[in-house]
Design brief:
This protein is mostly helical. The chain contains five helices and no strands. The chain is elongated and about 75 Å long.
Length: about 100
C-alpha cells in the first residue's frame, strides 16, 4: 500500500515507541491517514510536531506560572487577617 518512505539512514535516527490508543482515536487515525495519503506513523509524528510548537494550546509557560505564584503570595501577605464573624456554624443549623 505504501512505498518505502525511509532509508536505513533515516530509520537509524528514529526511536521506536509503542502507545495505546482508544478505539475512537484509532478510527480517526486510520481515516485521516487514508485521507492525507500518509502512513499512520507519519500522521502521529506530524501531530506531535504540531503539539510541541511554541504557542500550542496546551503548552505550559514556566515563567508565567512563576509570576502567578509570586502575585498570589503577595496578595496573601497584603490581605490582612480574616474578618471575625458574628455567627457560628452551629447557630446556622439551629434556625
Amino acid at each position: 500500500m505504501y512505498v518505502a518512505m525511509y532509508t536505513e539512514a533515516v530509520l537509524a535516527k528514529m526511536v521506536r515507541k509503542q502507545v495505546y490508543l482508544e478505539a475512537s482515536h484509532e478510527r480517526v487515525l486510520k481515516d485521516r491517514a487514508r485521507q492525507y495519503r500518509v502512513t499512520e506513523a507519519q500522521l502521529i509524528r506530524r501531530s506531535i510536531d504540531q503539539a510541541l510548537k511554541p504557542g500550542a494550546v496546551d503548552t505550559v509557560d514556566p515563567a508565567a506560572w512563576k509570576e502567578l505564584k509570586r502575585r498570589i503570595a503577595r496578595r496573601r501577605k497584603s490581605s490582612g487577617p480574616a474578618t471575625i464573624r458574628s455567627w457560628t456554624r452551629a447557630a446556622l443549623y439551629d434556625r
